[in-house]
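We were asked to recover a plausible sequence for a given structure. The inputs and outputs are reproduced exactly as logged, with field labels preserved.

PROBLEM: sequence recovery
POSITIONS: 124
GIVEN STRUCTURE:
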């Protein structure tokens, strides 16, 4: 099964819901669509909620800055990512660290959706 996602504008941010099994190509497409939805709605915040069957692979996690670069996700974005698959926590933390170290975006991983929404709203 490949990754499937929906993207909706939710007032002050774009919300992504993703399920299935992510890979590099589906990640680039998802992030490109999310960045375009933000630009279309004049927002810079993204809430992602992941219900994937397994986490993205290590190679893709380490290379997430180039995924964002290819997708047009720039430092102006603030991204909160909630992962409902506890097994993916390590990869989410790795991606968060890669993005922070390379100054790509203001991104943070969460296990609680309410906490992620509060964090996104902190800089309004």
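RECOVERED SEQUENCE:
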């Amino acid at each position: 099964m490949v990754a499937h996602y929906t993207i909706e504008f939710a007032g002050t941010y774009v919300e992504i819901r993703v399920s299935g099994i992510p890979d590099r190509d589906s990640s680039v497409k998802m992030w490109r669509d999310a960045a375009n939805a933000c630009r279309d709605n004049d927002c810079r915040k993204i809430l992602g909620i992941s219900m994937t069957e397994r986490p993205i692979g290590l190679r893709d996690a380490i290379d997430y800055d180039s995924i964002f670069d290819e997708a047009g996700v720039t430092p102006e974005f603030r991204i909160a990512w909630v992962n409902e698959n506890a097994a993916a926590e390590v990869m989410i933390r790795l991606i968060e660290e890669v993005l922070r170290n390379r100054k790509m975006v203001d991104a943070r991983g969460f296990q609680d959706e309410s906490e992620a929404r509060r964090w996104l709203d902190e800089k309004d």
